[in-house]
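During the second year of the project, the team shifted from modelling isolated chains to modelling whole assemblies. The rationale, set out in the original proposal, was that interfaces cannot be judged from single-chain predictions alone. As a representative example for this report, we include one of the complexes processed in the last quarter. Its constituent sequences, exactly as entered into the pipeline, are reproduced here:
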Amino acid sequence: MMRGQTVRLRPFGAGDVDFLHRWNNDPDYSGEFEPFEPVSREELEEWLPKEKPGQLWYIIETASGEKIGQVVGRLQDDGSVQIGYRVIPPARGMGYCTEAVRSLIDHLHRVRGVGRVTAEANPGNKPSLRLLVKLGFRRIAYKERAVEVNGVWLDGVVYELRMPKF
Ligand SMILES: CC(C)(COP(=O)(O)OP(=O)(O)OC[C@H]1O[C@@H](n2cnc3c(N)ncnc32)[C@H](O)[C@@H]1OP(=O)(O)O)[C@@H](O)C(=O)NCCC(=O)NCCS
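Output from the structure prediction step:
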């Protein structure tokens, strides 16, 4: 369990089926810049307990234990970690995701010795770009046709955060 000031991160577990099923079948959760991938309850029940080598999935909870989103860290071959994040629409704009990503980065750095974290966002995804800049990420690349969303190819901006190795 990782704790920030307003949120905590808890590894995905069997008890998260209802939450993930409810929200991952709502296109507003993935938003206009991320692919919408509906998932059945059965698929979730099978996937949740499985080992996920190289992938760290966490539920974002408020301090009072309410589930409000998810973050993922995907370990890359070069030792860096690529992150992704989502917060449910009613909990957006309150600083929760910034705090969740801050906790994840802190864990990756302090506990796992990670020195580089990357993220990719659509150039029009203002909340996501703002979050990355707030946390000190720097833009390093622009990718044309990075991701297909609703049959349309969208560009992506790649950001990185470098942290001192100890
Ligand atoms: C991106 C996302 C996770 C942000 O979650 P969140 O909890 O609302 O984020 P936070 O509240 O921590 O921070 C958002 C920042 O963006 C700002 N913001 C929100 N809408 C904005 C807009 N239209 N223009 C500029 N800034 C905006 C907020 O004001 C806040 O900045 P501030 O602290 O300086 O005021 C959420 O919008 C989401 O789940 N989107 C759909 C999925 C997605 O796009 N994921 C990211 C893929 S790269």
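The pocket of coenzyme A is lined by residues 30-31, 33-34, 85-87, 92-98, 121, 125-128, 130-131 (CB under 6 Å). The domain at 2-162 is CATH 3.40.630.30 (Aminopeptidase).
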